[in-house]
Structures are given as structure tokens and as C-alpha cells.
Specification:
Blueprint (H helix, E strand, L loop, with lengths): L2 E2 L6 H23 L6 H12 L4 E4 L6 H11 L4 E5 L6 H5 E7 L5 E7 L6 E5 L6 H4 L3 H6 L1 E4 L2 E4 L5 E6 L12 H6 L2 E4 L5 H11 L13 H13 L2 E2 H13 L13 E3 L3 H17 L7 H12 L4 E2 L1 H5 L4 H12 L1
Parallel strand pairs: 2-9, 2-10, 3-6, 6-9
Antiparallel strand pairs: 1-11, 4-5, 7-8, 12-13
Helix pairs in contact: 2-11, 10-11, 10-12, 11-12, 12-14
Length: about 325
């Protein structure tokens, strides 16, 4: 199987850097696992998102440690983290910052920009779907372009910059559906389910005692940035590339002649293909492998695609969900 490699890539250098990264990432997973119990897949997907340089949407009902997961990742990865509690009355300036008029002792007046909490390396957007679409849209430029524009002036965000947003299911009271343009900027949707009985038993014993589990810092922003650069240099086999293209294009209405496309009102764009290309590499590195496989594509298809698609009214009436369509596409393509 041939592989697609960037021309400037040095295979020996990649192997050396990957071996160092694998050791560090093993320590990262262990540190997170001491605080977050029974959610191995969730932790894997969250780390894959950050290693790919993207943003994650963490979805689950209250009480499943969504906020705790983000806090723990910020500590373990050594990132400057800030938290915004999204509420219906939150305004864009509460996120981005604002200019204030100041007067000097000599009577001179000038505007000074006061930075908002978005100026962080890891931003926790807690319960993001409780804010209005206007406020949610304040994140669009930052998530895509890594800077914000206030009063015509560009302000660059710290690097690396990641948004991990938590969201309660849309059917709960007091929530707003996220705009499609914003959903597409999230690299992955990470669903959190209820823990298994053994994990919950361990949780009961270790979180109700006199001492809480302590979180240690394993990485820092510079090392994380180097690992993110390594992920982009990892080789990808042609079979994996073809599988990604076929999978994404099979669930686009108007581009696919399969029965699946007829059930969709809109499907994933090129960002979905790019997201799969990055995340399969990151997942392979996290697993200690130097190249991704079709298993990585299969494992990441659902979290990458599900928030970038919508089924038609007729399909919903028949009981068909987006997840059903993705599973059918996986069985046909992979």
C-alpha cells in the first residue's frame, strides 16, 4: 500500500518524534484517567480533537462530567484555560471584550481595548446552547481564523487556540439550536453516555471520600503545538484517503446516486473530509501507531459527520436519524 506523504517529510525524523510523542500521550491519558472514570472513548476523542488542532462539541445530559473533562484537559495539557458560562442574557462583548473610553490626567481621551475571556488557549464554552444565536456567532471568526476583529482592529488569539463547548440535548428547556455554520466549525461532536456499573462504582468510592483525585500537568503549549505539527506530517495510505472521500461524498445530496443521499436535506462539506484526514492521524498517534488505518476512519465517522448533516422531513417521519444514515454509509463504504 502506497502512502501520501508531504515532500519535505523525513520518515526517520517522523519516527523519532512519534516515539517521543507516544510516550508523552500515554502519560496524558493516564493523568486524565485518574480524574475521569469509565469514559475512555470520550477521553480519546477529546484528545484526538486537540491533537488535530480543532474544536470539540461535548454533548450529554447534566451530571456526566462534561465540565470536569474540559477542566482536566486544560490542566494536564498545560494550557491557559478560561471558562464562559453561556446564558440567555450573555452578549458578544462578554466573550470578545470591548473598547472603553479613557481620559488621561492631561484631559486626552482614547479608546483602550479590554480583552474578553476568549483570549485563552483553551476556552470552555459551558452550556453553549443556552445563549442566543447572536451571542454564539461571536465565536465564528475566532474558531475559523484564530483572531477577532473589534472596531475594525484585528486582535490575534493565543496559540494554540481551542474551544471545547459543552451542550445539553436540544430538547431541554431554555436552549437554542446552534447555527449550521458554527456546528461545521467544530471538528468533532463528542457524545457522553452514562458510565458502566464498574466505572460508576469506582466513581462512588473515589469521589465521595476525604480527598479528591489530583491532576498533574504533563504537557505545555509548546509541546502540544509540536505534536499537532507532527500529526499533519504523518503519512496516510491511499486506501484511507479513498475511504474518506467515498464516505463523505456518499452522504451528500446531489453528489451521490445512493439511496442514502435521498434521505438528507444537507450533508457534510469539505471540512468533514479535512477533519477525518486530521483526526485519523491523531487517533493513530494516540494509539501508538505511525499511520492511520480504515479502522480509524470507521471509529471517527460518527463524531465527525453527525453534526454536519440533517435528514429530510420525510425521513424523520419514517423514523430515520442522521446516525442511521451514517451507519448505513459505513457498512457500504468501509
Amino acid at each position: 500500500m502506497s502512502a501520501i506523504v508531504q515532500p519535505e517529510t523525513n520518515p526517520e525524523e517522523i519516527v523519532r518524534e512519534a516515539e517521543e510523542a507516544v510516550d508523552l500521550l500515554g502519560r496524558v491519558r493516564a493523568a486524565v484517567g485518574r480524574v475521569i472514570y469509565g469514559q475512555d472513548v470520550v477521553v480519546e476523542r477529546a484528545l484526538t480533537t486537540l491533537l488535530s488542532g480543532g474544536h470539540g462539541l461535548v454533548v450529554g445530559v447534566p451530571g456526566l462530567a462534561k465540565t470536569k473533562l474540559v477542566e482536566t484537559l486544560g490542566t494536564v495539557l498545560g494550557l491557559e484555560a478560561r471558562r464562559i458560562q453561556f446564558t440567555p442574557d450573555l452578549m458578544p462583548s462578554d466573550i470578545l471584550g470591548a473598547e472603553v473610553l479613557e481620559e488621561s490626567g492631561e484631559g486626552r481621551r482614547a479608546f483602550r481595548f479590554i480583552r474578553g475571556p476568549i483570549f485563552a488557549q483553551l476556552l470552555m464554552a459551558d452550556e453553549i446552547n443556552r445563549a442566543s444565536p447572536r451571542t454564539q456567532s461571536a465565536l465564528l471568526q475566532a474558531m475559523q481564523e484564530q483572531h477577532v476583529t473589534i472596531a475594525g482592529q484585528r486582535h490575534d488569539l493565543p496559540q494554540p487556540f481551542h474551544v471545547l463547548a459543552t451542550q445539553n440535548p436540544l430538547e431541554q428547556e431554555g436552549t437554542y439550536p446552534l447555527p449550521e455554520a458554527q456546528l461545521d466549525r467544530f471538528l468533532m461532536q463528542i457524545d457522553i453516555a452514562y458510565p458502566g456499573i464498574e466505572a460508576e462504582r469506582r466513581m462512588l468510592m473515589e469521589t465521595t471520600g476525604a480527598r479528591d483525585a489530583e491532576t498533574e500537568t504533563v504537557l505545555d503549549a509548546e509541546r502540544l503545538t509540536r505534536i499537532q505539527a507532527l500529526v499533519r506530517r504523518m503519512p496516510v495510505g491511499e486506501s484511507v484517503v479513498e475511504a474518506i472521500l467515498k464516505l463523505v461524498r456518499s452522504v451528500r445530496p446531489g453528489e451521490s446516486d445512493t439511496a442514502l443521499a435521498e434521505k438528507l436535506s444537507w450533508g457534510p462539506g469539505p471540512r468533514a473530509s479535512q477533519a477525518l484526514m486530521l483526526t485519523v492521524r491523531a487517533r493513530a498517534l494516540l494509539d501508538g501507531r505511525l499511520a492511520p488505518s480504515l479502522d480509524d476512519v470507521d471509529a471517527l465517522a460518527m463524531p465527525i459527520l453527525q453534526h454536519r448533516m440533517a435528514v429530510t422531513f420525510a425521513a424523520r417521519a419514517e423514523g430515520t436519524t442522521v446516525q442511521d444514515v451514517i451507519r448505513s454509509a459505513q457498512s457500504e463504504v468501509l
